[in-house]
């Protein structure tokens, strides 16, 4: 599904990614871990097409289609979803209206008409029930006055409604207590299927107790320096990242 080949990227003339190679297949969950400043969020942003970042070399393809020249909005229409560490607040725009607009913009990009109102309502009800979201929550202004857990749950709801091919969760566990973490993780687990893929970017192993990855990759100094199964995350939790640095720098 997603293939990244020899990806080099920079921001404000500072080199961040220095040759990333990664393949994520449909049905898989990949976790990307690493110390602060290793390039995790940059990788998420570059795949999603955020314009602050410059790709200097390498390829990113989704289902065989080259993404390098596509804007972030076009990539979203192709099926890439990025959750943010710090979701923005949009006063005056309800969660429901934001979702309706997003879905219909996606459909428009695919040459389809707007989703009929009754179908939209049915889908909203089904996904809200699946994720244990109170109906009142959906009428609130997007992220305005939301707790950290509510913001993250709202993003998982957006993901559920948009049904992306590839979901990238960038430190979605940041600032969450255990209950909120469990709710968010349960939502992700319910939305996994053989037709989509998930990339979880996290600094800590605790999220991976709830969203169990098929593969764990360690990013250090702009490169993936180690890959393994879920046991690698436990090893990192025990030893920290110093042993990775020592191995790489040796």
Protein model, in words:
With 250 residues, this protein is α/β, with parallel strands linked by helices. It has one domain (2-249): Rossmann fold, CATH 3.40.50.300. It contains eight helices and twelve strands. The protein has a six-stranded mixed sheet, with helices on both faces. Strands 2-1-4-5 form a four-stranded antiparallel sheet. Strands 7-8 form a two-stranded antiparallel sheet. A hairpin with a 2-residue loop joins strand 11 and strand 12. Helix 3 (95-109) packs parallel to helix 5 and helix 5 (148-162) packs parallel to helix 6 (178-191). The longest helix is centred in the middle third of the chain and has 15 residues, at 95-109. It is globular. The model has no long low-confidence stretch (mean pLDDT 87).
Write a concise keyword list for the protein shown above.
alpha/beta; 250 residues; four-stranded antiparallel beta sheet; 8 helices; Rossmann fold; globular; 37% helix; six-stranded mixed beta sheet
């Amino acid at each position: 599904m997603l293939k990244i080949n020899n990806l080099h990227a920079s921001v404000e003339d500072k080199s961040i990614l220095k040759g990333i190679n990664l393949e994520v297949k449909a049905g898989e969950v990949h976790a990307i871990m690493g110390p602060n400043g290793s390039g995790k969020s940059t990788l998420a942003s570059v795949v999603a097409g955020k314009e602050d970042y410059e790709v200097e070399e390498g390829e990113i393809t989704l289902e065989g289609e080259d993404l390098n020249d596509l804007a972030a909005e076009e990539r979203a229409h192709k099926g890439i979803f990025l959750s943010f560490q710090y979701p923005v607040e949009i006063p005056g725009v309800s969660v429901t209206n934001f979702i309706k607009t997003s879905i219909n913009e996606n459909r428009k990009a695919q040459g389809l008409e707007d989703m009929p109102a009754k179908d939209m309502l049915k889908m909203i009800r089904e996904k809200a029930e699946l994720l244990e979201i109170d109906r009142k929550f959906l009428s609130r202004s997007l992220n305005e006055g939301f707790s950290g857990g509510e913001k993250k749950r709202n993003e998982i709801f957006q993901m559920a409604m948009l049904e992306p091919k590839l979901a990238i969760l960038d430190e979605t566990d940041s600032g969450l207590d255990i209950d909120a973490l469990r709710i968010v993780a349960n939502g992700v687990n319910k939305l996994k299927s053989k037709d989509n893929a998930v990339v979880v970017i996290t600094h800590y192993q605790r999220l991976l107790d709830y969203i169990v990855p098929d593969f764990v990759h360690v990013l250090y100094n702009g490169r993936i320096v180690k890959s393994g199964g879920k046991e690698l995350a436990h090893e990192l939790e025990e030893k920290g990242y110093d042993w990775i640095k020592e191995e790489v720098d040796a």
